[in-house]
Specification:
The protein is an alpha/beta fold. 33% of the residues lie in helices and 17% in strands. The strands form three sheets. An eight-stranded parallel barrel has the order 3-4-5-6-7-8-11-12, surrounded by four helices. Strands 1-2 form a two-stranded antiparallel sheet. It has a two-stranded antiparallel ribbon with strand order 9-10. Strand 11, helix 10 and strand 12 form a beta-alpha-beta unit. The protein is globular and about 55 Å long.
Length: 356
């Protein structure tokens, strides 16, 4: 549904045609910033601009309360600090589901992401890695017990767990990560749940100076793209990263099926494995590579490319969450980490969004 909204920006009357529903677009709502709007005002902003999907990284009660009856589809996260407890017992998982999901019957929960970018090779998250799979299993069982099995349970990965590769068809998980990720991928496949991945063409561009054309990273529709050794043309870097993850997940599934030596694995269709964009965006300031016009170009192009499928999944719209709703000036890390927002705290868009 298109919603026409006319706003005054810098003295100029600009018409924004907003349609976040086509192409499965949502927006991440992070709260690591000062002077941000209250959750109720944020929910109103989502509704004003027709943003029908939200992702948050916890189960903040004020946000959940504000979402009651809003009809916004919500993806929530399990905090890393809760993983060990949820992995320890089904009773703990059942209590978590009761407190954070069942307590809000008029919130439209879509996904629960159990662990965000937890990796056994990342010193910041490696301590949590052993708890991801059992926590997934316990949360899944708790939802089933509560009669909420329509809510999908997943986890989200960072592309740092992939082996370096030049082409999507070479995608595979690192050998030192495989013991961690392979059973997780198999669990998601068996429960018909997607794997979420953080897909940032911006970081691929800045981390490979001189090797990636800016137009490719900006998803410029006029760019001719690149052709892989197998003759597959990739028009933009988002598709290439996504398909690298899909290929890695397919290889992971094939490996677990072969290792199981189980007749039930005969003919497993790895091409039905789902991968979705857990987050992706572009900062508009903070480094020599960032400018508002480039961020505007990337976001508007992203909105268009996810309406279609990637070469590995043609004609399948790609559920993707733009990072992020607001700048978060309290986030640690590089300066760019604090400048991914689409909106100012006042609710005014930072740049024109062509979302139709």
């Amino acid at each position: 549904m298109a919603i026409m909204s006319v706003i005054l920006i810098m003295g100029l009357l600009i018409t924004l045609s907003l349609d976040f529903t086509v192409g499965q677009i949502g927006v991440n709502y992070g709260r690591m910033g000062c002077r941000l709007p209250t959750p109720s005002k944020v929910v109103a902003l989502y509704q004003q601009y027709g943003i029908q999907r939200m992702r948050i990284y916890d189960t903040d009660p004020a946000t959940l309360q504000a979402l009651c009856g809003s009809k916004i589809e919500l993806t929530v996260g399990v905090l890393h600090s809760d993983l060990e407890s949820l992995a320890a017992s089904s009773a703990n998982a059942e209590a978590w589901v009761q407190d954070n999901i069942c307590k809000y019957p008029t919130v439209d929960f879509r996904n629960i992401i159990v662990g965000n970018e937890v990796s056994p090779i990342d010193p910041k998250t490696s301590a949590f890695a052993p708890f991801v799979l059992p926590a997934l299993q316990n949360i899944y069982d708790a939802l089933t017990t509560a009669g909420l099995d329509e809510i999908q349970v997943s986890t989200s990965i960072d592309t740092g767990i992939l082996e370096p590769s030049d082409w999507p068809e070479d995608g595979r998980f690192r050998s030192d990560v495989a013991p961690h990720i392979d059973p997780i991928v198999r669990f998601l496949f068996d429960t018909n749940a997607p794997l979420f991945a953080s897909i940032y063409p911006y970081f691929a561009f800045v981390n490979n100076p001189g090797k990636i054309d800016l137009r490719y990273a900006l998803l410029d529709p006029s760019y001719e793209g690149v052709v892989t050794p197998k003759g597959v043309r990739y028009q933009n870097l988002f598709y290439a990263i996504l398909d690298t993850v899909i290929t890695a997940a397919e290889r992971s599934l094939a490996a677990t099926a072969a290792a199981a030596l189980d007749a039930t694995d005969d003919g497993i269709d790895v091409e039905t494995m789902q991968v979705k964009g857990g987050e992706g965006g572009m900062p508009d300031k903070g480094s020599k590579h960032t400018k508002p016009r480039l961020a505007k170009m990337f976001i508007n192009n992203l909105i268009q490319v996810v309406k279609k499928g990637s070469p590995k999944r043609p004609d399948e719209p790609i559920e993707t969450y733009i990072f992020a709703m607001f700048d978060e000036n309290q986030k640690p890390g590089n300066e760019t980490e604090r400048h991914f927002g689409l909106f100012y705290p006042s609710g005014r868009p930072k740049y024109r969004l062509d979302l139709n």
